[in-house]
């Protein structure tokens, strides 16, 4: 088993390089998107342009509609009005170019780690090589034959990341994938995601509660409030970023104050954090 | 060393009580505390078994019973799985079939014995029919329930990741339902024996149940007890096979991994 794996690994490097050149990020245009659940308005009028290869973070209080927006981009929801164009094609039904990383890993407990990654490739012919390549990207190729139940929470999310990236999607949708992880694992995962994004240049959209996570990773931070975009902030700090960077705290304060709405309360929060 | 001894002990542990009961039974029979007319001693039962086996009669009866049980199980279980899957997956099928099946389920299938005898006589069909009916419902219900309780999150994930309808079924829905289906299978095996025993005792001209009823007429108590013990052994064997199937098919489940860990 060991030997076979190694042989496949050798080949998979090659195929990884080839795949790299195939697809680049995708651009998105969201036009007057509206969504109602019965009478309840979840998205009121969303207009947004996302360039190919851009990393966008969407923040907001819970229930503001940010996850719903992401589910529309994934093609999991039907818009009440408006549309989403992707490379000038309107998304209709499940978005085949997008891969979603959910808040929970959603691994199949009855499949090995490798086969779980294979699910990201539709289990189509020749998936083993690509799956191993993807596992290698997240540093878990040694766990290929383990059951998911023996992995830690962070490892499970790394397998989920490998599964999302295995098909080399031009668009990666991240629905608070790090929310349930401890602080250290979360920081590790953030730099892993950033690294892979820089390497493979897919378009990434991250929904998160964590403002510092948004500023660490994104080119743009978008704030959604009551189903509409209330702020679109460009982050031009140099990468890799962390809280010690000059200007990081200032940006974080700016977003927080916009969310909380009151300058006074915000200063208190920022001071508390220091 | 000590670990090995403990392991061997734990493997033997389930059989300590049966063996002890057996020894006590022999002891009480020999001392006369249990009169021969109430219960023959275990050695007498074994003796009866050996002489019946020698004449080939025992094996014929076991073979006949086994064939009935197996045929009924395959027919009833197969239909149970088919209807369970259909009704679990397709709303259309569920709307049309489920109510009828639930209604029929509430008829005790053994109550059908008189009408089944009128229909089929005491031939093979009667027994196979009864076993099939008895086995159908537990398998149907557990399959249906298993399919319905597969996590919607996992199915959604499969859809987003572009799995085909067939892959969605074979990689997510069916394996997700499998633990529940296997519970149904084990339960059905119990029902299978019960039905067969009753059917063979009431109306048969061969099989273990017939052997026991026939022996009763000639007051051959040892053979009656032998038949009862045979049912216990065959039942245990069926359960063992089901367990083996479970631990093979559900290897991924932490519940079945304790052997590897410990």
What does this protein structure show overall?
The complex is a heterodimer of chains A (274) and B (262). Chain A has helices at residues 2-22, 66-74, 113-119, 127-137, 153-165, 183-200, 211-217, 248-260, 263-273, and strands at 28-37, 40-50, 55-59, 81-86, 89-90, 98-101, 171-175, 203-208, 220-225, 228-234. Chain A is of the alpha/beta class. A 6-stranded mixed sheet of chain A has the order 6-7-8-3-9-10, sandwiched between helices. In chain A, strands 2-1-4-5 form a 4-stranded antiparallel sheet, with helices on one face. Chain A is globular. Helix content of chain B is 81%, strand content 0%. Chain B has 12 helices and no strands. Chain B is mainly alpha-helical and 262 residues long. Chain B starts with a helix and ends with a helix. Chain B has one domain (56-261): MetI-like (MetI-like fold, Orthogonal Bundle).
How do you describe this structure in short?
Chain A is an alpha/beta fold. Chain A has nine helices and ten strands.
Blueprint (SSEs and pairs):
The complex is a heterodimer of chains A (274) and B (262).
Chain A: H1 2-22, E1 28-37, E2 40-50, E3 55-59, H2 66-74, E4 81-86, E5 89-90, E6 98-101, H3 113-119, H4 127-137, H5 153-165, E7 171-175, H6 183-200, E8 203-208, H7 211-217, E9 220-225, E10 228-234, H8 248-260, H9 263-273
Parallel strand pairs in A: 3-8, 3-9, 6-7, 7-8
Antiparallel strand pairs in A: 1-2, 1-4, 4-5, 9-10
Chain B: H1 2-12, H2 16-31, H3 42-54, H4 57-89, H5 91-105, H6 113-120, H7 124-148, H8 152-160, H9 165-202, H10 208-217, H11 221-249, H12 258-261
Helix pairs in contact in B: 3-11, 4-5, 4-7, 4-9, 4-10, 6-7, 7-9, 9-10, 9-11, 10-11
Tell me the Rg of chain A in angstroms.
19 Å
Can you tell me the CATH superfamily of chain B?
MetI-like
Helix content of chain A: 40-55%
The percentage of residues in β strands of chain A lies in: 15-25%
Tally of helical segments of chain A: 9
State the secondary-structure class of chain B: mainly alpha
Biggest sheet character of chain A:
6 strands, mixed
Order of helices and strands of chain A: HEEEHEEEHHHEHEHEEHH
Q: What's the CATH C level of chain B? A: Mainly Alpha
Q: If classified by CATH, what would the architecture of the largest domain in chain A be? A: 3-Layer(aba) Sandwich
Number of separate domains of chain B: 1
Largest sheet of chain B: none
Shape of chain A: globular
């Amino acid at each position: 088993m060991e030997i076979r794996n190694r042989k496949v690994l050798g080949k998979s490097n090659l195929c990884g390089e080839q795949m790299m050149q195939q697809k680049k990020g995708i651009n998105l245009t969201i036009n007057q998107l509206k969504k109602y659940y019965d009478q309840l308005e979840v998205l009121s009028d969303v207009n947004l342009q996302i360039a190919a290869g851009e990393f966008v973070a969407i923040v907001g209080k819970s229930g503001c509609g940010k996850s719903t927006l992401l589910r529309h981009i994934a093609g999991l929801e039907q818009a009440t009005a408006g549309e989403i164009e992707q490379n000038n094609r309107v998304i209709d039904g499940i978005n085949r170019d997008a891969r979603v990383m959910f808040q929970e890993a959603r691994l199949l407990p009855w499949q090995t780690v490798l086969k779980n990654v294979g699910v990201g490739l539709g289990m189509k012919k020749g998936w083993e090589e690509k799956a191993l390549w993807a596992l290698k990207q997240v540093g878990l190729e040694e766990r290929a034959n383990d059951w998911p139940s023996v992995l830690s929470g962070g490892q499970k999310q790394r397998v989920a990341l490998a599964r999302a990236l295995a098909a080399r999607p031009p668009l990666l949708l991240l629905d608070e994938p790090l929310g349930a992880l401890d602080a250290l694992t979360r920081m590790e995962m953030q730099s892993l995601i950033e690294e892979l994004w820089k390497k493979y240049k897919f378009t990434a959209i991250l929904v998160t509660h964590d403002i510092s996570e948004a500023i660490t990773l994104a080119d743009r931070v978008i704030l959604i409030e009551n189903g509409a975009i209330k702020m679109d902030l460009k982050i031009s700090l140099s990468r890799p970023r962390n809280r010690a960077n000059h200007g990081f705290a200032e940006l974080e304060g700016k977003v927080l104050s916009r969310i909380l709405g009151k300058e006074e309360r915000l200063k208190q929060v920022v001071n508390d954090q220091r | 060393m000590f670990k090995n001894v403990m392991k061997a002990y734990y493997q033997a542990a389930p059989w300590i009580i049966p063996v002890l009961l057996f020894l006590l039974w022999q002891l009480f029979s020999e001392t006369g505390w249990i009169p021969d007319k109430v219960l023959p001693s275990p050695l007498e039962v074994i003796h009866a078994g050996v002489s019946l086996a020698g004449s080939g009669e025992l094996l014929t009866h076991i073979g006949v019973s086994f064939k009935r049980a197996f045929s009924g199980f395959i027919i009833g279980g197969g239909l149970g799985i088919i209807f369970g899957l259909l009704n679990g997956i397709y709303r259309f099928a569920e709307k049309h079939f489920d109510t009828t099946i639930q209604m029929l389920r509430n008829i005790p299938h053994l109550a059908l014995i008189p009408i089944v005898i009128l229909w089929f006589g005491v031939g093979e069909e009667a027994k196979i029919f009864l076993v099939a009916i008895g086995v159908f419902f537990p398998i149907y219900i557990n399959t249906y329930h298993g399919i319905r309780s597969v996590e919607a999150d996992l199915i959604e994930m499969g859809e987003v990741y572009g799995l085909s309808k067939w892959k969605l079924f074979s990689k997510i829905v069916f394996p997700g339902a499998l633990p529940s289906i296997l519970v149904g299978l084990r339960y059905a095996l119990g029902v299978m024996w019960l039905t067969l025993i009753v059917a063979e005792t009431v109306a048969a001209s061969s099989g273990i149940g017939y052997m026991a009823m026939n022996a009763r007429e000639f007051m051959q108590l040892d053979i009656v007890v032998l038949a009862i013990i045979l049912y216990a052994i065959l039942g245990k064997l069926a359960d063992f096979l089901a367990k083996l199937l479970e631990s093979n098919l559900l290897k991924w489940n932490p519940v079945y991994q304790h052997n590897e860990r410990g």
